[in-house]
């Protein structure tokens, strides 16, 4: 809300009420001073309502920001758990798989010594 609406709105005109109060005090009119004081009080009540509204909005935004930061940490942790790998374990598993593959090839070569050339003879 722009300041012009906040301080000079149709229901809460802070500056207009202050000007009325100044004029009433300068002229010595007690009824005008009372009217201006009530208008000023109403204007300040309107300001207080707006301050509370915007304060609550800021608190909600701060809470949302805190929640999103916590979610970011949580999701990052989950991603690390799902994607992250133990390098030592992965290297050991790869070495075992390569050894098993080599052993399988060696065993197959001894069991199946025939080749295409054996059939051509």
Which bin fits the share of residues in helices? over 70%
Query: Separation of termini?
Result: 97 Å
Radius of gyration: 41 Å
Would you identify the regions where 5 or more consecutive residues have pLDDT less than 50? none
Report the sheet-strand fraction: under 5%
- What is the typical, i.e. mean, pLDDT? 84
Main sheet attributes: strand count, strand direction, barrel closure: none
Structure notes:
With 121 residues, the protein is mainly alpha-helical. It has a domain at 3-85. Helices cover 86% and strands 0% of the residues. The chain is built from 5 helices and no strands. α2 (14-27) runs antiparallel to α3 (30-83). The longest helix is centred in the middle third of the chain and has 54 residues, at 30-83. It is rod-shaped, with a radius of gyration of 41 Å. 3% of the residues are buried.
Task: Summarize this entry quickly.
With 121 residues, the protein is mainly alpha-helical. It is built from five helices and no strands.
